[in-house]
Amino acid sequence: MQSITIRRPDDWHLHLRDGAMLEGVIADSSRDFARAIIMPNLVPPVVTTEDAEAYRGRIMAALPKGDRFEPLMTLYLTEHTDPDDVEKGKESGLITAVKLYPAGATTNSHGGVRDIDKAMPVLERMARIGLPLCVHGEVTTSDVDIFDREAVFIETVLDPLRKRLPELKVTMEHVTTKDGIDYIKSAERNLAGSITTHHLIINRNAILVGGIRPHYYCLPVAKREHHRVALRQAATSGDARFFLGTDSAPHVDPLKECGCGCAGIYTSINTMSCLAHVFEQDNALDRLEAFASLNGPAWYGLPINEERITLVKRAEPVSFPVKIETGAGPVTVFDPMFPLHWDVER
Ligand code: NCD
Ligand code: ZN
User: Fold this and answer.
1) b or e along 216-245 (b: 16 or more beta carbons within 10 Å of the residue's beta carbon)?
2) CATH superfamily, region 3-344
3) What are residue 249's DSSP bridge partners?
4) Residue 76 CA to ligand 1 centre (angstroms)
5) How far is the CA of 306 from the centre of ligand 1 (A)?
6) From the first residue on, what is the mean pLDDT of each consecutive set of 10 residues in the chain (346 residues)?
7) Residue 10 designated active-site
8) pTM of the entire structure?
């Protein structure tokens, strides 16, 4: 039997939601991951350190007894964010990053930033105190095709911002294009990227061929095959600038299976099995630990986890539920469309 032992992984981009949904999904993260960067796009969003502290409290209260899991809190950047509040949050150790959602880019982002100039005071402060900015890298103007929105964001927003503030540390989250990968590779410093589980596995055909499949729809939307290949190469290369951010984003099935379905794919429960499969396929199992457990903490300046997990390859496929039941309703689990044999040993 094949097996691999790695440092306990972290998830550098996760949606835990709130209330009954939070209670229904948190165990799927705390089972395999030691820490996660928690997205602030609640309704209403997490905009102040006070909001973040309260949300952290609700997450800790929902955590299954005995599980050790550290939520790394973020603030949702608005045009009115107070630089002093952000600095206070960093100094107290509560805040790990600030999240930029261009207004309207994705789920619950209407309060995001329209005019980046208005956010400059807080971005300047973050550059000074070394607090990373996590970006949802898509423009939202209606004249830009949805498949081009990441590339256009890099050219018209991200690159000018980085030239204006070279000291700002930027995480380009859920990179979905070769353009994104190439841009990150071209930067000498202060730029890194997270990659999701599902973008390593699906291209846009999964959403559109043979019928419309809402459970493969997320934002940024999956792109053409050559982009997926570029993501795979980056993730499995061991390059320290790339690390795991699942972007696991639960929505109840009725909100995905309807005339205007929500964006988001739920992968917390089977990410480590999927990743072991992907890295084995690419002859890179020895680099899984870098991607899932080492590169992220190095980028965020946090210690690596001392605990280990072991993944074993079973002869029979491992079964995951098709959907999980939460108090908010059923949530369909990501189906990689191949049998999963790798299993986290408990
Ligand atoms: C996320 C969500 O549902 O909150 N959806 C998604 O498709 N990834 C928002 C996001 O990260 O874009
Ligand atoms: Zn997300």
Assistant:
1) bbbbbbbbeeebbebbbebbbbbbebbbbb
2) Metal-dependent hydrolases (3.20.20.140)
3) none
4) 14
5) 30
6) 95 98 98 98 97 98 97 97 98 98 87 93 98 97 97 97 98 98 97 99 98 98 98 98 98 98 98 98 98 98 98 98 98 98 96
7) no
8) 0.98
